[in-house]
């Protein structure tokens, strides 16, 4: 069976991508958990796009498999765009990252709490030589809430308020999140190239 590597070890992201890639049929999805010996890609780019490209090329080259890699994060206007590309490394755990962000946002009124999730997704293929076939982005606008709510999702979802939903992102089940999230948007734009590569009818 044909294989497609999803370049992440984050189990929450793996589950999300499995759902978003359901229409890529007869292709087995693999994650970095299946390749524990691969050298870890450097994520030192200044933008989400640069990191997604670097990761996709790196893991495609090492695994020999077509690879989807994404880099995503939270951009908070009142913090000058932080945590940005450092979102996953802002603190050691999800809970600590949320606590740190809420501390930094203390005293900032609602209109100034605007933020957005940004996702850049890259699709790299190994033939005829390793190259990026497609690069896409998705954006979800919202606000940093005053407290964490919800049990769905992962990362900063519990403190991200989406006006269109009228609730925190972690308060909606995956099927709703996957209809509008930044990652869902980026992967939806990537799908035609993935299906074309695997010769799956659109």
Describe it for me?
- With 202 residues, the protein is of the alpha/beta class.
- The chain has a single domain (2-197), classed as Alpha-Beta Complex (Maf protein), CATH 3.90.950.
- The chain contains five helices and seven strands.
- Strand 1, helix 1 and strand 2 form a beta-alpha-beta unit.
- Helix 4 crosses helix 5.
- The radius of gyration is 17 Å and the shape is globular.
**In which order are the strands of the major sheet placed?**
2-1-3-4-5-6-7
If you compute it from the alpha carbons, what radius of gyration comes out, rounded to the nearest whole angstrom? 17 Å
* SSE ordering: EHEHEHEEEEHH
Helix proportion range = 25-40%
By CATH reckoning, the class would read Alpha Beta
Estimated share of beta-strand residues? 25-35%
How many β-strand runs?
Answer: 7
Low-confidence stretches: none
Write down the overall mean pLDDT: 96
User: Based on CA inertia axes, which overall geometry fits?
Assistant: globular
The CATH topology, please? Maf protein
Query: What's the number of helices?
Result: 5
Keywords:
alpha/beta, Maf protein, 5 helices, seven-stranded mixed sheet, single chain, 202 residues, 25% strand, globular
Give me a quick take on this structure.
This protein has helices at residues 11-20, 48-63, 94-104, 174-180, 182-197, and strands at residues 2-6, 27-31, 67-76, 114-125, 131-144, 160-162, 167-168. It is an alpha/beta fold.
């Amino acid at each position: 069976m044909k294989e497609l590597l999803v370049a992440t070890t984050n189990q929450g992201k793996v589950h999300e991508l499995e759902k978003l890639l359901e229409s890529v049929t007869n292709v087995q999805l693999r994650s970095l958990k299946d390749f524990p010996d691969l050298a870890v890609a450097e994520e030192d780019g200044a933008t989400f796009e640069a990191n997604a490209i670097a990761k996709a090329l790196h893991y495609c080259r090492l695994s020999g498999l077509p690879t989807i890699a994404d880099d995503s994060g939270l951009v908070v206007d009142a913090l000058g765009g932080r945590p940005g590309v450092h979102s996953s490394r802002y603190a050691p755990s999800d809970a600590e990252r949320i606590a740190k962000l809420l501390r930094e946002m203390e005293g900032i009124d609602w209109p100034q709490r605007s933020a957005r999730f940004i996702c850049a997704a890259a699709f790299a293929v190994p033939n005829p030589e390793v190259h990026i076939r497609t690069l896409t982005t998705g954006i979800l606008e919202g606000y940093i809430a005053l407290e964490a709510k919800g049990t769905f999702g992962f990362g900063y979802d519990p403190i991200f308020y989406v006006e269109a939903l009228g609730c925190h992102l972690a308060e909606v089940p995956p099927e709703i999140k996957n209809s509008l999230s930044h990652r869902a948007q980026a992967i939806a734009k990537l799908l035609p190239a993935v299906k074309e590569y695997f010769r799956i009818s659109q």
